[in-house]
Amino acid sequence: MIIETALRTRQTSEYYFSVKLAEVRKLLAEGHDVINLGIGNPDMMPSEQTIQALANAALKPQAHGYQPYVGTPAYRNAIASFYYQTYGVKLDPLTEILPLIGSKEGITHISLTFLDPGDEVLVPELGYPAYRAVSQMVGAVVQEYPLREEHGWQPDWEVMEGLVSARTKIMWLNYPHMPTGAPATIALFEQAVAFAQKHKILLCHDNPYSLVLNKKKPISLLSVPGAREVAIELNSMSKSHNMAGWRLGWVAAAKPYIDAVLTIKSNVDSGMFWAMQEAAVAALQNDQAWHDSRNAVYQGRLDAAEAFLSALNCTWDSRQEGMFLWGKLPDSVESAEQLVNSLLLEKYVFIAPGFIFGPKGQRYIRLSLCMPKERIWEAVKRIKG
Ligand SMILES: Cc1ncc(COP(=O)(O)O)c(C=O)c1O
User: Fold this and answer.
1) Which of 12, 101, 117, 276 is the most exposed place for a label (fewest CB within 10 A)?
2) Which ranges of the chain does DSSP label H, i.e. alpha helix?
3) From the CB of 128, is ligand 1 less than 6 Å away?
4) What residue stretches are annotated with the Aminotransferase class I/classII large domain (predicted)?
């Protein structure tokens, strides 16, 4: 290439899965039966009413034009009802919700909206890689905060005090936590809000897993008194509604925050396909039985995933929530990278190494539950054989 890329591109690495899944595809193309337990890509269908709504709407002549930057009123109303029913949080559909093309893009929009070069961002030392990558892309300085197993994978607020500077602008938080599966608690959210209030930091909570294998009523950070002054919450239909490929999510916050994000976002994309928003409305009305049956399937896969970890002599915490199982490697395994590569090349089983979520994940692996249980058992058989 004779044109040099920007510094930010040179300083950013391609997303791990983007590289690794190309390797998986190559093995598949060579005829190998690869079992992919790496990525959190739901294999189950959205509800029937969702697909039907998409098909019906797509047939309408008015479906195909540009749509409002702020999403359709029907989609925003459906999100507001869902928030109230699920979390008991009242949102004004006109001013406190902004639909997103998946919550991942929201991380970029929020960072572009609030961060100047040199601002500091508190990022969990183990977490979704985009928080760190995007902060760096916009020229901010990443300040990692520790998440320790012995502390329930939650921030230690005394340690946090020492990490704040006059330039700290954003803190990323995500509970139920990916990749460790640590649950959300009201106490944790209250402490986070108090911390953000004290230091005038924008608390960005990423909440895609609250409905997946949750052991108690799902929680929104916005349910904590005072949260709206300092917090913004991302949510997504990828995992909770089996709609990862549809790219449907939203950000919820007080009006000034939403208006600010819209200033940036409206210069980036031009709304979402109307038929998809209609389908999202239908999906948000899935009843509790639908959510229960999705969770029952994941629950049924957990035995196989635990047998997989057990076959590798890993240890794990059985209180995990979300659609993964996070396991600690035994001392006998030299490195996660070596294990992941040998499982892929010798057993044709792909799992995620913990270090892709931060260097502190080096002695861990993450299994996804997005595979039929028979396939996970087949993977167990292969690694035992
Ligand atoms: C913690 C976390 N946040 C955000 C996302 C992105 O979700 P979406 O599909 O809504 O972009 C993921 C996806 O794996 C995730 O694990």
Assistant:
1) 117
2) 7-10, 16-29, 48-58, 73-87, 103-114, 129-137, 157-163, 186-199, 227-230, 255-265, 274-284, 288-311, 336-342, 373-384
3) yes
4) 33-383
Query: Tokens at residue 233, please?
Result: 């919450």
Neighbour-count burial of 58, counting CB atoms closer than 10 A to its CB (0-12 exposed, 13-18 middle, 19+ buried) = middle
Q: Which amino acid is at 170?
A: I
Q: What is the pLDDT of residues 93-109, one digit of tens each?
A: 999 999 999 999 999 99
Which amino acid belongs to residue 259?
A: D
* Residues paired with 352 in a beta bridge: 366
pLDDT tens, position by position, 62-120: 999 999 999 999 999 999 999 999 999 999 999 999 999 999 999 999 999 999 999 99
Pocket probe for ligand 1: among 175, 239, 246, 368, the residue whose CB has the most ligand atoms within 8 Å is 239
Q: Which residue, among 125, 42, 23, has the nearest Cα to 364 in the 3D structure?
A: 125
